[in-house]
Design brief:
With 804 residues, the chain is α+β, with helices and mostly antiparallel strands. The protein is 15% helix and 34% strand. It has 13 helices and 43 strands. Strand 24 and strand 25 form a beta hairpin. Helix 6 packs parallel to helix 7 and helix 12 runs parallel beside helix 13. The termini are far apart.
Length: 804
């Protein structure tokens, strides 16, 4: 090995200060010898994944702001500059945050494709927009599930690993080219499900038979036993030939970004084909910076694809901040460029697919952090990407350059918690050497290239969803989704009404498909999580047999496998029977004169804890329930065709009887309420039990921990339910406690306040005092609209007192 002369270079006055201030514990620089003759693997890019309905709301943004968001995602030298886009092949089944529609709802549509089949959803549009901004971007596709007809002709039942499904994937690829002039570079097998080696070979054969030899297969997209596919490829030469790239999911979680020795010896490219921390904030950005480097250092993975591209779905759905950007309020045009954009830019704006890793300078840093070095194979240009996330103090690196590397000035870009993607310096190497001192918890890119830039557009401020809201489903193209509706199962698309009275919304899936996750009944939701008192109505028509539903106060969906939404719903069956439910619990039921193939108006009204149901303006029932007090609206059906029209969410126009049952009386109203602190008289404790949704209590600023809000009930009172309606965006840990005469007892042990309202039910307690005790509030000071207490009688057995 050649020995290179080490020389400390004075760069600028700023750098002199940094080096001079290095404390005594950093007495020796770490030396990095960059040898351009020692080539590693070929870098294949950084990508992102649009799947699981994670991009659903993006297409509904006003064109100007939508364009700005897309520029941040795909435009080179502007923002994240993703170099690879992977999309879901829709299958009419829930794939995390919703359902993506299929290009072939039936076998007939597969055999006789039409252009209108290939404009469903938004993935075609997204690929076109990405390609428009970066013609060199790689395009990729993968299935989560499939329509129910897949495999039935061969096996008699729906079967994913079938010739049908190979043809289904081929149709997606061919449709992209025929109708959108998009050439897909890769396709996958089945997301995070056990693969079938023989079917992978069948897929390769089917692609080749359809003149698609350039479409490469990535397998097996597993998130457990992730390198098993490499073992099978090593044993089966035909499987190895069929699979171009070994793709695994979340190696940083399961193997600390390490790949198996077998995988590394295969000779096939290795990718992290789905990765990421599911957050785009500063903590997410730090994780991404580590992943991008460590996937190569530890695993020799040459491409990392993260989920998701953008958080463009309702925030009450699972994993609400998975993307590098947030763009989930298209009605306002607001979007948020998060630090994860710039963590990504530190690689994508400085290294390009086809560049070569220089393994001599892909290392861990002695004092915390990692670096990778990449070189343009056609020139002497190079870039060094460094992260010091785990470093505790500054550290100085000395770089020695081999003679065949550029001696041009080196541009230095930095991101830290307070400043993102800033060009801070330039270095002129002396005698093939230079020094740089790095701050902890930062990202750096050192490059001899130019052209990098930071986008500076800003969207408008956020605003709440429009209220009142009406949708008549006109002015759409049949087959498309209406604005802002988010399908959670089944597929709802614009259709022409059979009576020719313009258009309607139609649910078209009559059998649950091959699932990736458990699907609820077909449902589509819209609106604002903070809608409280309103009425939701729609004209509905059950086709032949089945049922239709309207939903209100739709709350947080805790899992993509949840069978029932956290909501109230009114359901009408084709025989006229109806149900009024709070999720799976029936609150009322009955029967009306109604039948299939007729239009009937369904309506729900919410006023406080009173919920009223109507069919064709006939009052069915009013019930009183404290479970949900706010949330979105929606439409649904069974696994049957159904039509919907004239959807409205608006202030209540129907008379809603008020509750007389004492079990629905809020016992906190009118009682003495005190707090540990108060922001000012406008936010005093009395605002938290005044029965007004427009006033709230706030503790003194900066007092997030160990704060409390206490109600003195007077005479001993029995209760079994409390509701805390916290201020929007406030997050904390809290306890509900009652006083036993000498000490406070935990009624509800410490838990996260993950939603508003938080409802806690428990076995009855009898006491004179109750309080909510805020144990931790990292995001803000405690602030509460209402603190409510009820004795519903739903819990029967007394609970033993437990000491705090």
């Amino acid at each position: 090995m050649k020995k290179y002369k080490i020389k400390i270079l004075t760069i600028t006055c700023i750098c002199i200060t940094l080096i001079a201030s290095v404390p005594a514990y950093s007495q020796q620089n770490q030396i990095i010898n960059i040898d351009a003759s020692k080539h590693g693997r070929t870098f294949e890019g950084i990508g992102a994944l649009s799947a699981g309905a994670s991009s659903r709301l993006l297409i509904d943004y006003p064109q100007m702001y939508r364009g700005q968001i897309l520029d941040y995602l795909f435009k080179p030298n502007h923002g994240a500059a993703f170099q690879h886009l992977k999309v879901e092949i829709g299958g009419n089944v829930n794939s995390t945050d919703g359902t993506e529609p299929s290009h072939a709802h039936t076998r007939e549509e597969l055999l006789n494709p039409k252009q209108e089949h290939y404009v469903r959803g938004y993935e075609w549009w997204l690929m076109r927009e990405a390609k428009k901004r970066n013609p060199d971007i790689y395009l990729d596709c993968l299935q989560w599930g499939a329509p129910a007809w897949i495999g039935k002709q061969e096996t008699g039942e729906k079967t994913f690993y079938s010739q049908d499904n190979a043809d289904y994937i081929v149709a997606f690829v061919k449709g992209a080219k025929r109708y959108h002039r998009l050439n897909l570079d890769y396709c996958g097998v089945w997301n995070e499900r056990m693969y079938d080696p023989e079917w992978i070979k069948l897929l390769r054969y089917t692609l080749d038979k359809n003149f698609l030899p350039d479409v490469k297969i990535v397998a097996a997209d597993m998130h457990w036993d992730i390198w098993k596919i490499a073992d099978d490829m090593a044993k089966d030469p035909n499987l190895k030939d069929a699979v171009h790239t070994v793709g695994v999911h979340y190696p940083y979680k399961s193997t600390d970004c390490k790949s198996s020795e077998t995988a590394k010896k295969l000779g096939n490219p290795l990718w992290s084909s789905e990765d990421g921390p599911w957050r785009g904030d500063w903590n997410g950005a730090k994780t991404l910076a580590k992943i991008y480097n460590k996937n190569y250092i530890n695993g020799k993975m040459t491409k990392t694809i993260i989920w998701s591209l953008v958080s463009s779905y309702y925030e009450n759905l699972p994993l609400p901040n998975s993307g590098v950007m947030i763009a989930n309020t298209p009605w306002s045009g607001h979007y948020l460029v998060q630090p994860a954009v710039w963590a990504t830019a530190h690689t994508t704006q400085f290294a390009y697919p086809g560049w070569i890793y220089l393994d001599s300078a892909c290392n861990f840093l002695h004092n915390g952090g990692t670096l990778v070095t990449l070189k343009n194979p056609n020139s002497a240009e190079y870039s060094i990407i460094i992260e010091t996330v785990d470093a505790k103090q500054p550290q100085t690196l000395t770089f020695n350059l081999s003679p065949d590397l550029s001696k041009q000035k080196i541009h230095v870009w930095r991101t830290n918690k307070n400043s993102h993607f800033i060009k801070i310096n330039q270095i002129n190497p002396t005698n093939d050497s230079f020094d740089i001192t790095l701050d902890p918890e930062s990202f750096y890119s050192l490059t001899t290239t130019t052209g990098q830039a930071k986008g500076d557009t800003l969207g408008p401020p956020p605003s709440d969803f429009t209220f009142p809201y009406a949708e008549k489903f006109e002015n759409y193209i049949p087959g498309l989704q209406p604005k802002f509706f988010s399908d959670q199962a089944g597929t709802f698309e614009i259709a022409i009404r059979p009576d020719k009275k313009d258009y309607c919304l139609r649910q078209i899936v009559t059998e649950v498909g091959i699932e990736w996750a458990t699907n609820p009944y077909p449902e589509t939701f819209i609106g604002d999580n903070y809608w409280t008192d309103y009425e939701v109505s729609a004209d509905t028509c059950i086709e032949n047999a089945g049922f239709v539903s309207v939903f209100g106060r739709v709350g947080k969906k805790k899992s993509w496998s949840a069978k029932q939404p956290n909501a109230y719903w009114l359901r009408l069956h084709h025989d006229g029977s109806w149900l009024l439910n709070a999720d799976s619990a029936t609150l009322a039921s009955g029967k009306v004169k109604a039948s299939a193939n007729q239009w009937h108006n369904l309506k729900l009204c919410f006023e406080g804890i009173a919920i009223s149901a109507f069919i064709d303006d006939q009052h069915l029932a009013t019930v009183y329930d404290v479970k949900y007090d706010s949330g979105m609206a929606g439409l649904g059906s069974g696994w049957n065709n159904a039509m919907f029209d004239n959807f409205h969410v608006k202030p209540i126009t129907s008379s809603v009887p008020q509750p007389s049952d004492p079990k629905y009386k809020n016992l906190a109203i009118g009682k003495i309420i005190t707090a540990s602190s108060c922001l000012n008289p406008d936010y005093d404790p009395q605002k938290a039990n005044d029965d007004l949704s427009s006033t709230r209590f706030s503790a003194a600023e900066g007092t997030g921990n160990d704060q409390w809000l206490q109600i003195d009930l007077g005479p001993k009172t029995t209760f079994d339910t409390v509701i805390v309606r916290a201020y929007k965006g406030f997050q904390t840990k809290y306890k509900i406690q009652h006083f036993d005469g000498s000490k406070w007892i935990d009624t509800i042990k410490e838990k996260d306040m993950a939603a508003s309202p938080e409802l806690d039910s428990f076995d009855p307690v009898t006491t004179e005092k109750i309080r909510i005790y805020f144990t931790s509030a990292p995001s803000d000071t405690p602030s509460v609209w209402e603190f409510e207490i009820y004795n519903t009688g739903q819990s029967k057995k007394p609970a033993p007192l437990k000491q705090n």
